[in-house]
User: Fold these one by one.
Assistant:
Number 1:
Amino acid sequence: NRLLAFLALLIFGFAHQTSAQKPPPNVIFFAVDDLCDWVGAMGYAQARTPNMDALARRGISFNNAHCPGTFCAPSRSAIFTGRFASTTGCYRTEIYFHNHPELRPLQVSFAKAGYATYGAGKLFHHARGYIDHRGWTKFFLRNEAAKREGWPLDSWGKDTPLPDPFPNSIYNRGRQITGGMFLEWAAIPNEREKDMADTKRVNWACDILKQKHDVPFFMAVGLYAPHFPNYVPKKYFDLHDVEKIKAPVYKEDDLDDLPPLVKRRKINRKRQHHDRLVELGAIEQAIHGYLASVSYADAMLGRVMKALRQSSYADNTVVVLWSDHVFHHGEKGDWG
């Protein structure tokens, strides 16, 4: 069975010494969005994830980790508070810290323990007003306007590269996209990588690692990738030969175990999305975009790990790599 979540606690150079001999460890909390077990270290042969694989070889992988929620907000709320949705009240898009300000998220706990706390990117389910901004020494925003607008993530906007034409994927070509960019993928010019929102967040994190810190730090870095849209530089598409990509096995009776109402909804969704991709002959193309985005996310992790190795904190830093929940590639007729 596929994992419901890919959550790996990966320890980088953590020496076995007592707290009296060494200060508390720094922590890097690296998040990716919509990553399933399509990672080399998890036994998936089509992945090109050398940095995740190297990290896994040096640490501990949790192969029986389960997503605490089947949607973004409840899952991320659970990860940050250690509480299920039955406690946070977050089942869909509710904001746990509005109704339950007494719940202490990770960054507040670290701050109370004497840590400097740094955050960037998609850590919470991140529309306007959805970030828990308590406890951060500094949270990176690409522009000051974001603070006035409720700290939205805005990973795709006027200051980030979009393909030409837009939309670009065969699934959306000729349509008008009003939001979400669902099943949208395209290679963008390699020289535009520096302009991508996730790249800017990772570069900021690397700059934090170059600084001198007098107290231990907790640094959380959240990527939007490999969430749709799968817009990443062409070099990451080039890592995968679309002609050799194999789709998952699709079971003809995969919806038969569902309750009638849910089955009806799933059949309608399958007709709109999966069946359309089949008609277009675009299943492998859509998977190609996802794998390219996973490779881009892997490269961003590699950039942070390189900065850590080159810093004075490499021997006393714990690295945690996690994703909020799994991603469907046509299983049960679902995409996303």
Number 2:
Amino acid sequence: MNPYQQAVTDEEFNTNDGQILGGVAIGIILFGQAGYSFPPGSVENAQTFKYPVLFHGIHAASVESVVSPKLDQDVISQLVDAGLYLEQQGCRAIIGACGYFANYLPQVVEKLHTPCFFSSLMQVPMILSSLRPKQKIGVLCANGKVLNSAPVLANCGIHDPSRLVVAGAEELPEMKKILSGVGHYNTYKLEQGLIGLAKDLVTKNPDIGAFLLECTLFPSHAWAIQKEIKLPVFDFSTLIDWIHSAVVRKQFYGYM
């Protein structure tokens, strides 16, 4: 059967009160003012996705308020409000466009009815279960110091950090621009810095079996990193594509 024959079905379709659009399954919560640019591949760039996404920014969220082990009550309140809005517009899953939004994950999911995925690190338990017991995951993150001191790991279901080898990019010149919010950075120079960090991790830790990129900007460089280290590389794009495949199932057809 041709799947397009199922485009119109004999059933009632309901619209949420206040819903003004349809057909967007993935909602993405952004910083209200990020202070950095968004290359293709980043979560903040709509061209990254092969399906529609609905972006919604919150002004309380910034590098200072989110990339920190200290919780900000305004961020919590606005994350909940943003999540409720995205639910209202028909989104079936909600993404937080910063890995450190996971600091706030328990407080937000308690108030929403839609699944929330606030960090690419949520893939870590699944990746670890695919590796040999002594293998580890190399993690490239925006700020390694914060990652090790914040509730992000526990909120993502990571209870054995010893199986992670973390490299923070905060000392890279281009990452310093991003974290300070100057509004621009050189993507090529950032990519070369990330490749250097990844290669150094693998050299020092030959038991690494996979890589995880924590920052929403890093998927832009996943291909180049994998080309150098020859390992599976997971990031926000692999997470969001997987989520979309679950909330928008495709009908199978053909013959036997």
Number 3:
Amino acid sequence: GVQTCALPIYQLLMREVAANLAREDWGLLRGILRRANTAVFLASLALVLAAAAGSWVVFGHTPARMTDTFWMALPFVPLIALTRVRQATMQGLHRVTLGAMPEQLVQPALFFAFLAAVYVLRARLAPQTAMGANVAAMACAFLLGAWLLSRNLPPQVKSAAPVYRNRDWTASALPLMFLAGISALFGQADTLILGAFRGGGAVGIYSVAHKGSEMIGVLLNAQVAAFASSAASLYALDDRERLQSLVTRLTRVTLLASLPLGLGFIVFGKWFLMMYGPAFAGARATLVILSL
């Protein structure tokens, strides 16, 4: 819930960090960082408190280990929310890979090390223990990410007096929030409509074709993540010529790189679907349409 509501903040933060970095407006950069961290932390804290209060009612007659596991998972909410803020900041600083590294590499490695230790020691792995280890790995990755951000943040930002433009930021965030809500709605509309008319079996077959076609957009998503901060910087500097050149190059590279996979699904989609079982072969036409 926090991730969907705070998505506009992450997008706005990335854009403002990149633009203010390009203009060397250190006061505004520090101001947007403070506001974003405060807003996301308060929203996540409110959700944690609401979940904690609701658990007294919902988990009144459930096993203790389930309740304990749920309570152990609550720190995930602020950790993940603030992590997204830091990742958006690093993206705005043109450090996309470095910003994602703690959660994509360090956290899974720490959690895997814990599971390996349990296996070697032949210890009993309780749900509460596993959740606690996962939270601890997330916390370690968070601290590493915060250190990396501190190292990559321009020193002028740390010494600058924060400048706030709350009205402008709110006006920018509202359209982004509307688009995020519409995107979330449309993202589920196909399966909801199909389920209403054809039932759960059709949804299951459709979902496999849908997930397969989404693989075609993986390169686009990666390119956009790396390109977004550059676009914001060039727009802030009013360098429309370089911005257009970058967009054209990105479009061509994405098309040429995605085309082989798309054609592969169109021609050999049946064999891809058969990997999930013979029943899914009937979704070949769906996969072709989604690939197109």
